[in-house]
Amino acid sequence: MDTLRRFLQPKPLFTLVLGLYIIFTSLHLTQFVTADEHYWLYERVPKYWNAWGDWELRKTFINDKPGVSLAIVTGPALLALPDTSEHCVEQDNRLYDCQVEDTASLLLAFRLPILIANGLILIYIFFLLSRLFSPWVGLFASIFTALSPVLIGMTQIVNPDALLWSTSAAALFSYLAVLKSGRRQDIVMTVLFTTLALLSKYTALILFPAFALALCIRFIASPKDDSADSVAASLKTGILQLAGIATASTAFVLALVPAFLLDRKYLAEYLATVPDKEVLLFVFAPLALVLLGDVFLFRSRFLLFCRAAIHRIAPFLRIIALFVLLLLVAVIAARYLFPGWSIYTIPFDIKDLTDARYHSSVPNVFEAFFLEWNAVLFSLPPILLVSLVLLALFGLRKKPLSETPTLLTLTLFALGFTLILIHSNILATARYAIMLFPVLAILGAFGLAEVARLRETREKEWRPAIAIFAITASILSLVAIHPFYANYANTLLPKQALIADAWGYGGYEAARYLNVLPDAEGLTVWSDYYGVCEFFVGDCLTAYTFDRNEIRPDYYVLTRRGEARYMSRFDRWERLSGLTAHRYYRQTAILPVWSLEIDDRPGNYVKVFRVEK
User: Is-above-0.85 flag for pTM?
Assistant: First the structure.
């Protein structure tokens, strides 16, 4: 009994969670290739390291994302595979020549370092949150993060998003530790993870306004009994620390991507991705200068006045946070209350929210908010959704403002992220909003912690039971979608609806079927996406134009994503290359010889058709 009690504590249970993370991320790790991965595997990652090796530093700019943290983490793979560009080559006739027998080892070499890196970051986040809040909050947040199907799926992909979610979460939580303790170690870790996040993807630039938001909320939420002088001094120190973090992070980014300094066009290209530059320049910049002037010239008199006023309306602030959390619940409920709502006819995978090709009227702000959260919330396991509801119901009850700065910061960060997406005209998929998943995980952790406190006398007994239940429920979500984790959608999403494409899944399974056909090495397959070619032993191509006299496909491998691209100009492809794939999409007269429905959703299919000559 004592052994069981010792096991049912945060650290042993976290070890279990970490083990489950390793198991699930290892499954199916080398049995798919996504649409964009070959650019990183064969071009961008080698280019970065070759730039340093040849001292051609202008070539350290490998992409506008910029994806350099991915190159750093996966760099060790090049020690064993120095020339990945030869693995899969598109020949002059547009056929791919792939060394199929080496595909699994190549993918393992690049993906395993990402798995390890994110595992180490999960350990860091657990101990950081345990110190910031409590070991149980750290455990609950780790369960929702380490066992999230979407985050496990992203960890398996050689793409900047695979590191963006982990490094940005570690940076944000480290900065919260800076505000709470001011320890030098926390400042160093904030700089480290902010640098890695910025090197992952330009989306991480939102961390700087997030840090400023956290600093302001910490200042506003400081206890009313604290003297004005001490609060003002704390704010001044916080501003100087934030300036130091921003300066150091920027310096490390420039040091690791010297192309930014050597050729200004790369820096301009990176900064061009920053949304709402005019708003930042003409609205927030003057506002920031006014507030900084008040802090450093007038001893924060204006800000202290604002702080006192906000404390008088503190209950209203909690109502705002409660409203935001309940609004997220409404996004899911609306699917059932208003199934005919026109916004649900807008395809989930268009990039521009106002793309007129897909809907007749531009969504208003309210409709846009529902659309932006649609993919995110339906990608969360049910246990996390329940925890968010519990937080909304119990987390902000009768608490003074001084006890809720983290809840307010993370809630407003999620809201601000959504508003930026809307203003930037970007329709979020789960991948575009990947930074929100760890934030929602810790909010869900607070929700479970609040449930344990409902009966203070039984809190110690409740917490282990709640943790075991959360782990079990998370495992069930992973098993339900196995092995296509990045395509996870919870059971609340109607089966006919989609929030993700196959995105490379199913190619290995389709190739496995084709490889056992008679004379498989002599067959020619045309696929409308890249995910099958690196596993097929015969001739494979994805090009829309090729010599129809030299190449005549025996089989088509077709997907929903490919359908959208191909059908836009199918008559041109048939005229130029003899492609007749349009005859096989969405029809019942010709049956596929093999098919796969991702997550048992008929709309998200991978099908193999024998081509009728």
Answer: yes
